[in-house]
Structure formats: structure tokens, C-alpha cells
Amino acid sequence: MNIPMKIIRLVLLTFIFSGFSLMSKADIPPVFGSEYRGKTQKDELTRVYISPLRIIWKNDADGKMISNEEVLVLPGNSQPEMGKRNMCVMTSTENDTASIMFDYGKELHGGLQLLMGGSSRREPSLVRIRFGESVGECNSQTSNSEWKVGYSTDDHAKRDIFMEIPRDGMIEIGNTGFRFVRIDLLQKNTTIRLKEARAILRYRDIPYLGSFNSSDERLNQIWLTGAYTVHLNMQEFLWDGVKRDRVIWLGDMHPEVATIMSVFGYNDVVPNTLDLACQQYPLPGWMNGMSAYSLWYLIIHNDWYTHNGDLDFLKKHKDYILGLIDQIDSKIETGGKEELAKNRFLDWPSSPNKEGVEAGYRALIVWAMKDAENLCYILNEPAYAKKAKDCTDKMSRYIKGHNNLKQAASLMAIAGIMDAKKACEEVVSVGGAKDFSTFYGYYMLQAQAKAGEYQEAIDIIRQFWGGMLDMGATTFWEDFNMDWLENAARLDELTPPGKKDIHGDFGAYCYPGFRHSFCHGWASGPTAWMTEHILGVKIVEPGCKVIKIEPHLGDLKWVEGTFPTPHGVLTIKHTKDGNGKIVSEINAPKGVKIIR
């Protein structure tokens, strides 16, 4: 009996990607017997408690509703105390509500730990706790029935919580992305005492092996902010956002994986996430139900193998990769027209430009199939390598114009179906940071690098990503538009009358108003870009066995940094001498060959 290869492959995929475990076996007390076997897993993430850096605001109309709040910015110990000394006192009256808002200084992922003292009630007291990525979000009302500007949502993570809290005890609340917390005492004619109100930071405790330091502190801060944005999203699996989009999105993963390779090197979160994606979206489905995201899956694999040289992991995904090539090939006609799927998605800001999206989507197919061809040679599958190349050849017979869409022209330049210099002159570099986006901005920068426009790209990084920093960002956002800066207040201040709220008054598509995520991993592209093009790290042979150092400092006087490889950390320093010539100092680990 001849069993079709597609059925064999589907069975193998089901076997390979079922039952894998991210977490290690938990060590639990011996009182737990054999009936618990297989029912526990260790939490490999770390918890850190952080006291507020400052009190943003309090509602204390008569000067007697809140007192001694300064104790809450002091270090804590998570131990309740019986009594009333050295505590913040909050009293709500019949007609007024005691409220207070804290700033923890940085975007965090986690919750809130409250340590309570004595209360005027023996019963628990009702409070409202609001987490916010901005001061405006912390003060906002929640609307889950519809998404609209000026309102928050509880999608993916509960951030607006009504609950009872004990007296003389401790309670932990929340699991979301936030920087600010507001507490309202809703119980009328009631006094409560707060000993501590500490944020719980839940994160992956790993070293920053990669680094970037230059003569421009603004670029240094942008590099580190992009690194931290992705770090927060490295939870059990790799998310796109810690407040919203706490799920696996394959397209969004690509800039994140580039950042992880530049900052952390190898980390299990990437292969574990790719494994889970195959389990969640078996063929013939598309990753996340989106054909474009299956293309990103192939590109990610090529990049990950290039950096780590992990052939065993690539072989684990071999059947899925080959099956995906079969699926894509079956939907491309000889003349270059294709019908992968009706839904064509690049990123949200490009969505209105249908013709441009179509051109960019087709370029993404070419890029993905070129990477697939390379993967097939590595996997010793020459027939599939030829099939992938045939897809590329067919797609190249029918090239659509970019329709003045920066996203499309950037992909076309990267895929090699449009001259990069022409793409930048016609659209990508026109207007500088205008029409850049946080996700596809990475590919716009890559197109500029391919065109030799390094200084233009550096200037845009300063302007666009730096513009978020100017508004108080400590992580990079789901979307950003330079036009938002006009007459807008910073995210870490109460919005004065007559000014726009940089968070609540903007946003579109699926992220209007405060639903907009202010910590989105797909926005981290400049971190990877600066490592690749300013430090000049280009991997020539898989596993970082050969690395070419080709720096482009632009107007920088010097730059230094590190780059993680499977063999150890590569150390680099470039300095311009009096004639503008770059003098380099490079210290490579054993097993890494450096070429210039």
C-alpha cells in the first residue's frame, strides 16, 4: 500500500511536536505522593519585589484622607505587622474616595503585593486596583464591549480589579504589563493602613551577553530599551506584549529573535516557542491562521540556524518545513500569480494601502522561499531545495510596484527583487521617519543599510525610536507615529488641560486608546540593527564559526560592544582616528574566525 507522503509527514509532525515540556520537573516536598507525578512543573522565572519610586498623585480633598504615604517608597520585607505604626493611612468618607497612584519607574511584567496593617473594619475592605502602562491608563475607565479611543480593556490580562483586601495581612494581585498602579478605597467611612505596596517583577533571570555603547547616549539608550522590551516578553514562551498579545505570533517573533540573538545569544524560549507553534498550528493550516506568518516561520528558522548552527533542532522541524514548502508550491502558478490565502497582512499601518501590501506580501514569499532553499540544502534535501527555488523563480516573473508603501519597498529590496538604492530613493527614505512603523521599521532600516544609507538610518533611529523615549517610554510600543508628538504630554505625567494624552488619544485598528500596548517585542528592531551594522557583526558561516566585522559609524566618534556566539562572547571596539579612519580592536573567542 502506498501511503501519501503528506499523510506520513502529518503523522510524524503530530508525534514530534506533542508532549514536549518547557519546564523542568519540580522538586516538591516528600509529603506529595506518586499521585502528583506529571502534575507539577517548576516555575523557571524569577520574582523580584520593587518599591515605588514616587507617588504620582493622591486624592486627598481635605488633607486628612491620606497621610504618611512616603513610607511606601521605602524598602519592604513582605512581612505583615500587627499595629498601626509607620504605615500609610487611607480614609474614605461618605462623600469622597481616598485614592493614590504609584510610579515604579520602568515597565514591568507581574503584579502587586500589598502588606496591610490595622483597619477600622474587622471585615475585608473593598478596593479598586488599576494597573497602567501610562498615567492616563491608570486613571482610565474600562470598556471591554467595544474598543475605543480614551478607554482601556482587560483583553489578555486583567488590569482593572475590584477586590476585597484583608487587614493585618498580605495579598498579591494581578498579572499584566504596567508601570503605574492606582488604588481606590471604595468602602465608605473606612480607614485602612498600607505597610507596603510593592510591584512584583516576573522575568527570566539571564545575563545580557550582548552590549552596545557609543559616543551617542541616545543610541545607547535605544539599544538597551529594545533589549529590555524583548526581555520582558521572554516569559514561559516568547510573547509579543506583556499587557496585550500575550500569545505566540510568528511574524512578530522575527524582530524579537533578531534581538535575542544580539543580546542573549541562545535561549530555550525560541526553540520552545517554535515547537509550540507547530503544535498549535499543524499543517495544512497557517501559523496564527495567517499565511504571511508561516513565511516568517521559515525566515526565523534560517536566522536561528545561522546564529546557533543547531542542526538537531532544524532536523526536528524538517517535516514541517518540507510540508510547508509543498503547501506554498501548490499555490503558486507558473506565471507567478499565487493564491496562498485571501488575507494579506504586513503590519497594521500598511493595511489601507492594498496594492502596496500585495507587492510587499509577494516579496515576503520570495524572501521566505530563498531561506527555505538554503534550509533544504542544510537538511540534505536537494529536491526540496529545487522546489523552493522554483517558487522563487515563478514569483519573480510577476513583480508588482510598491505603490509608495515603505513596508513593501523594504521587503522588495531585502528579497532582491528591487534595487535597494532605488527603493530608498523612491519611498523608504522619503520624509525620513514619516510613515515608519515600530514592526516594519526594522526592515526599512535594513533596506537603508542595503542601499548604503547608514547615516540616514541612524538619524531615523534617533528620531523615531528616540521620540518614544522623549515621551517617557521605558519599553517600545506596538505602534508610534511622529505626528503624535505635537502638543502631547508624556506618559509619566498627568495630562495638562489642552494637551493630548500620548497613550489614550491615539491608536487605531486593534489598538485604539489605552488598549495600545506600550511594551511590544516587534518594536525592538534597532537593537539588532545597531549590533549588525554599527558594531558591524555579520555571520558568514552557521554557528558563528566565521564572522565578518564591517562597521558603519556614521557620525559616531566611537562604538564598543559585545556579541554572544555559541563559542563565547565576541568583544569589539571601533574608534575614529584624526583622519576619520576606523581603528578596530576585536577579541574573538576560540572557534570564531574573524574576517574584515
From TrEMBL:
Gene3D superfamilies: 1.50.10.10, Maltose phosphorylase, domain 3
Pfam family, one: Bac_rhamnosid6H
UniProt domain Alpha-L-rhamnosidase C-terminal: residue ranges: 536-593
Species of provenance: Dysgonomonas macrotermitis
Database matches in InterPro entries: 6-hairpin_glycosidase_sf, 6hp_glycosidase-like_sf, Bac_rhamnosid6H, Bac_rhamnosid_C
Stated name of the protein: Alpha-L-rhamnosidase
GO annotation, biological process: carbohydrate metabolic process
Domain Alpha-L-rhamnosidase six-hairpin glycosidase intervals: 209-534
